[in-house]
Design a protein that fits this description.
The complex is a heterodimer of chains A (256) and B (255). Chain A has 256 residues and is mainly alpha-helical. Chain A has helices at 2-30, 41-50, 52-86, 88-103, 106-117, 122-145, 149-157, 162-199, 205-214, 218-246. In chain B, α2 (92-102) packs across α3 and α2 runs parallel beside α4 (136-148). The chains are: A mainly alpha (256), B alpha/beta (255).
């Protein structure tokens, strides 16, 4: 039974991926597709390997722009969620602004931000933050409001202070919601950083993609894209891992 | 222990309609007495408990607990709800200790008491489990332990067995009686099961819906300790018939 599950969960997807890559490789050879239109996987891999040292620097820049934007979204988003839940006045004041900020396409904001803040890493961090903070605020606020009213009554019947109730009941109750938002936010932060780099930069994986395509170096653009996806997957996995550590009670029963 | 004098509770819905939940409720509960409140849904039973606990103010009338007027939540009271509302991130033992922590007591000193309570309710061996690894009945036992930990002299129970299946429900009722025999306290217990109300109580308070009023207070007068056998006692049937008559007669009259 266990063996069958291993086959279903890891062997099948891996085989599908390898199969797709083989078909891709064969197709580029068979139909003689020009390499700048659709390079073969082997060519992408070779180009990526050639670039391995230069990639390190670019990946690092994109990584810290992403992490910076994500960190800001948590630092700003969580307290904002608390304010929204605890103060009806702030809720009606802030919520429309948040929704408005969310409805403006971030890609449209990016050029303006770069104009104002210059071409350094800061505007990229800001774009990543703007893209990422919405799910953090909304999910954390939902989580904070999800405490059963009976538990709040119980806390009150014990004459516990609002702060104590917040720390011991509401905040832990919101953790699964917060992490749901954080997992979306971290992948969005990668997009935000790349969008920022597209608009104007001389560093980062987004910059590599842009300059590679303008020189018809499609293999390089592809390998940079793959590296970006890997980064997003690893970052997502890291947030999921932190969630497992912080919220061990969420692990399915009998999982150990 | 508890005294309600002409208590009325009304509130406004969001649409601005006045809802009269309770009207002219007068009730005295003696120390260590087990009183059940029975009535159809929406008769303000739960509201009554909240009023007694000081969680919400009465619109009119006065409430006294231990001869002190109730204006806000006070010490020495335990609350059990229909849902166990445990904290999913805490182990069973830490959930029991939650009440001590919220009261500002030192949880380390309450550990022994908590373990004793878990043993009393048949939960030994489950101390380190998470609530979701427990059945509904066991979760509710944990909630009862949590309420009993500071050893309150007053216990307010709002349909505590309402979400359990019929078999677990009977078992839990008998268990509650056993605990109550061992550690006497005043219990105000809300239910909409007539047999449960009679099995547990010294006195049954029958309520009518909208606005909630006390139709009558019935003395049960059955000997203790009680078992399920008590249901075959003719006195049990007599009380049960009377409760039914009070609840259903109203309904017919209302039509």
């Amino acid at each position: 039974m266990i063996r069958r599950r291993v086959v279903a969960e890891s062997v099948v997807p891996a085989a599908t991926l390898v199969g797709a890559l083989l078909v891709w490789e064969a197709a580029t050879q068979a139909f003689r597709i020009p390499r700048f239109v659709m390079p073969a996987p082997s060519a992408i891999l070779a180009e990526g390997w050639d670039w391995r040292y230069r990639f390190l620097g670019h990946a690092w820049v994109t990584l810290y722009e992403t992490l910076g934007g994500f960190a800001l979204s948590v630092i700003v988003g969580v307290p904002l969620a608390v304010l929204i839940v605890y103060s009806p006045v702030l809720r009606s004041a802030v919520y429309p602004l948040i929704v408005l900020a969310q409805s403006v396409p971030k890609i449209a904001i990016a050029p303006v931000l770069l104009l104002v803040l210059g071409y350094g890493e800061v505007p990229k961090v800001i774009v990543a933050f703007l893209v990422a903070f919405f799910p953090v605020v909304v999910d954390t606020a939902t989580g904070l409001a999800a405490t059963p009213p009976e538990l709040l009554d119980l806390s009150r019947s014990y004459r516990a202070s609002a702060f104590k109730t917040f720390v011991k009941v509401r905040l832990p109750m919101a953790m699964p919601f917060f992490f749901a938002g954080a997992k979306v936010a971290i992948t969005l932060a990668v997009i935000g950083a790349v969008v920022g780099e597209f608009v104007g930069s001389d560093k980062g994986l987004g910059y590599v993609i842009l300059s590679a395509t303008s020189y018809w170096k499609t293999e390089l653009a592809f390998s940079s894209m793959i590296l970006l996806s890997l980064m997003a997957i690893v970052l997502f996995g890291a947030v999921a891992l932190v969630e497992r550590v912080v919220c061990p009670w969420l692990a399915p029963a009998g999982d150990e | 222990m508890i005294r309600l004098d002409g208590v009325e509770k009304t509130w406004r819905t969001r649409r601005g309609d006045l809802v009269r939940a309770l009207e002219d409720v007068t009730l005295h509960v003696e120390p260590n007495e087990f009183v059940t409140l029975v009535g159809p849904s929406g008769c303000g039973k739960s509201t009554l408990l909240k009023l007694v606990a000081g969680l919400t103010p009465a619109t009119r009338g006065a409430i006294y607990v231990r001869d002190q007027p109730v204006r806000e939540p006070f010490a020495d009271v335990g609350f059990v709800f229909q849902q166990p509302v445990l904290l999913p991130w805490r182990s069973v033992l830490d959930n029991v200790l939650f009440s001590a922590e919220m009261l500002g007591l030192d949880p380390r000193q309450c550990r022994k008491t908590a373990l004793d309570l878990l043993e009393l309710t048949g939960l030994s061996g489950f101390e380190t489990k998470y609530p979701r690894e427990l059945s509904g009945g066991m979760q509710q036992r944990v909630a009862i332990c949590r309420a009993l930990l500071p050893d309150p002299s007053l216990l307010l129970m709002d349909e505590p067995f309402g979400a359990l299946d019929a078999m677990t429900r009977e078992e839990m009722s008998l268990e509650l009686l056993r605990i109550w025999e061992e550690r006497r306290k005043t219990i105000l217990f809300v239910t909409h099961s007539i047999p449960e109300a009679i099995l547990l109580a010294d006195r049954v308070v029958v309520m009518t819906p909208r606005p909630g009023r006390i139709a009558r207070v019935l003395d049960v007068g059955l000997p203790r300790p009680r078992t399920m056998e008590v249901e075959f006692d003719p006195r049990f049937k007599a009380v049960s018939d009377e409760v039914r008559a009070l609840i259903f007669a109203r309904r017919v009259a209302a039509r």
